[in-house]
């Protein structure tokens, strides 16, 4: 009789707390790594380093495009090379380059130029994909159970939130309240250089690798992409998730302008609001997980996202300059924020089983690569939509007229979220159908039965 463990692939037993905590640990430093890249590095290289702003922007845009292009390749290679250690070698191999690239990006030598920035930025994105895609795929493979997968994603995304909170607060604490860019980047480098190796050692040591890979004839990347493209529910889900992330990123692109020109509040107040929203979100995370298991992940995702962007309409009722009243909608946003953190990845993971049934192959990493690509495409599209549309509607920061901001920053995200929710109406992979898919895989592809629970 086979001994059962906390991560038994043949049962639906709850995942043991220790391996679950260990698996989710790397999400904390990984989330901290993105903060300087998104918020601080472009301004740092344009001001402190003194590089031309337009060229800095071009290099960051090219690096983001490279990041999106290599995701499917990394996913395909990770699937093809998976051995008895699962995805662990990819994480251990990519992490050193990730830490080194972060160090050189955040601590450039005197006289660093555009070539220096381009080299280390491209290496950062290569290392990031090498770690992140196998890491997400590992989470999909730890349990094929519908509810356990939500729990896994909840722990991982909860740590991601804690990392975001630390990334926001640490520079303020260690920099005397008003840190400069050099201090902020030094804090990020030092913290992540310590936390990421420790977290990865814990994850690799204490978390099982997942189901043993099953032998299958090798296929090329294009053939693998065609198999993923044949999974209709997955493509439909990606369309909905793209719409949700597009809505979120349009809001993110406009939120500081909304704070200033609609609510009459400054950036410092906004940061306090966001900290409060995220803290409430962290506390609401278990409730969102339970709701998803009760009504179904796709229902909770659609309703929660609609609720999030409907709450933004309450900002229109806030008197200008009233910070205490303005915080109330942000507090309500915190209650549904975990929906956007946790449920997209957990729901996408459930569609992998249908892909296994249709193709007879386990391509978890390639699926997660397309999931990542949808997220990055939404970010790029939001930048190309929000700011140009504000200009077309006549928004001028010097004049500060609120109506264009209301239309683009509040109404448009709600419309995008509504489109995403409509795509999920009648989504076929419910908990019951997911279980039926797993049973059918056991009959049709018995050699893959250990990969699906």
From TrEMBL:
Signal peptide: none annotated. The chain crosses the membrane at residues 20-43, 49-69, 89-105, 117-138, 159-178, 184-206, 234-258, 270-288, 300-318, 324-348, 369-393, 405-424. InterPro entries: MFS_2, MFS_trans_sf. The keyword Lyase does not apply. GO terms for cellular component: plasma membrane. Keywords: Membrane, Transmembrane, Transmembrane helix. It comes from the Bacteria. GO terms for molecular function: symporter activity. One of its GO terms (biological process) is carbohydrate transport. The keyword Membrane applies. Belongs to the sodium:galactoside symporter (TC 2.A.2) family. This is MFS transporter.
